[in-house]
Amino acid sequence: MDIDAILADERGLDPADWEATRRLGHQMLDDMIDYLSTVRERPVWQAVTKEAKEHLDRELPLQPLSAEAVYENFKTHILPFPKGNIHPRFWSWVEGGGTPLGVLAELLAAAMNPNVSIGDHAAMYVDGQVIEWCKTMMGFPDNAGGILLSGGTMANITAIQVARNSFADADIRREGVGAAGAPLTVYASSETHSCIHKAVEIAGLGRNHLRLIPVDEQYQIDLTMLQQQIDADRAAGMLPFCLIANAGTVNTGAIDPLDELHRICQQESLWFHVDGAFGALAKLVPELSAELQAIEKADSVAFDLHKWMYLPYEVGCVLIRDVQLQRAAFAYQPDYLLSHERGLAAGPDPISNYGMELSRGFKSLKVWMCLQQYGLPAFARQIRQNIAQARYLADLIDAAPELERLAAVPMNIVCFRYRTKEMDEATLNMFNKELLMRLHESGIAAPSYTLLRGRYAMRVANTNHRSRKSDFDILVDTVRRIGAGLAREWSAQTSG
Ligand SMILES: *Cc1c(COP(=O)(O)O)cnc(C)c1O
């Protein structure tokens, strides 16, 4: 290595011309504010073109390109083909649409670029404050712990990891799950999100030990069958240790009977975890606060701020009632991560002692800024509005003779299908899938889908602060129009 030659030509990655960067940055900001403020004028979704796909399938770049040219490529090949979740008529899966200050907060966080894991710097205190605010929102005690993560999946995984490592006196961190002496079993309803399956697998418990308890007509866990399963497992020498309640199932928004589940957990000495990925925040709404009150008694709760708090991706949260158990589940004190008394290496206990990640971005900043900007009541009002809109949509569907609602609407999710008398169930499934694909291709609205007791449902999950009542009118009108056309096509085919 020719050290002298290299050092004679030192460079960094900052621009030679900061003014050009400033101009480009201003341009981007103007463009993005236009983009957000005109979102309603564009289709909710459009297919990624062949040219764009080709552009996004290029070789690893070896030659430099100006930042301006790279931005042009972004505008041509990426920006026109969004997922759609910032659009007022996007209701697919469960996705938030972001807020403008949240977008700007991401810029600020990226500019400061702290790794929020260890050290005495402001971002550590912002993270800590946001966790305190989350505890207040969920009615968790002062001495509870928590951590911000990429989303609900990681939040649920983290909670189950803490629950597992807290089992009895077994030193599972040291000895592995075998130290428990017999298989640890977990209980949840059959409607439970797939990330719980992953969590159980990652915790080394084995998917066979996740007991999926059937649900009733309302898609709530069947308490009698739950108790029977726990009893049977104990009789068979298993070790029931954790129960996962749904505060808002992903399919229909069902809320499991939390009080009864909490009581069973106390009787059976089970860890009481609530997956409230979106639904936990509905606790802020007066009409649902009683039904969701028992979240306050949970050993842990997982919820997302990028779903029903509308913040930009990614940010989820897990709260753990006993912060010492959380710490005991993850803490390590390697020589290079020991906190000092003063200086940069002082500050709060490293966040890596409370979760799996070491490097962490400054995702708390957007939460901190947006909670201050709007105040908590504005979020409660927004969530309440989404629920009212879902009920409005349910009424529209119930009033439309060719539409059939397929589940109750306890929160913000509406499942329905188009129905014609001539079709059997299998045909209806194919018909509604085709209808949904055409609806997406129309660019007018984007519900998603699920299967409910084998029936294909179009599924509207409303965590959208940009939706208005009229958007649901448009959805129903468009589904009826596309459905009628499709029904004519299909009957022409069968008769012809
Ligand atoms: C979305 C969701 C999850 C997973 O959360 P991510 O943020 O997508 O990782 C878990 N449970 C439920 C009920 C959800 O709706």
Features of this protein?
44% helix, single chain, five-stranded mixed sheet, alpha/beta, 12 strands, 496 residues, 17 helices
Short description:
Helices cover 44% and strands 13% of the residues. With 496 residues, the chain is α/β, with parallel strands linked by helices. It is globular, with a radius of gyration of 25 Å.
Verbal overview:
With 496 residues, this protein is an alpha/beta fold. Helix content is 44%, strand content 13%. The protein is built from 17 helices and twelve strands. The strands form two sheets. Strands 2-8-7-6-5-3-4 form a seven-stranded mixed β-sheet, with helices on both faces. The protein has a five-stranded mixed β-sheet with strand order 1-11-12-10-9. Strand 6, helix 12 and strand 7 form a beta-alpha-beta unit. The chain starts with a helix and ends with a helix. The mean pLDDT is 97.
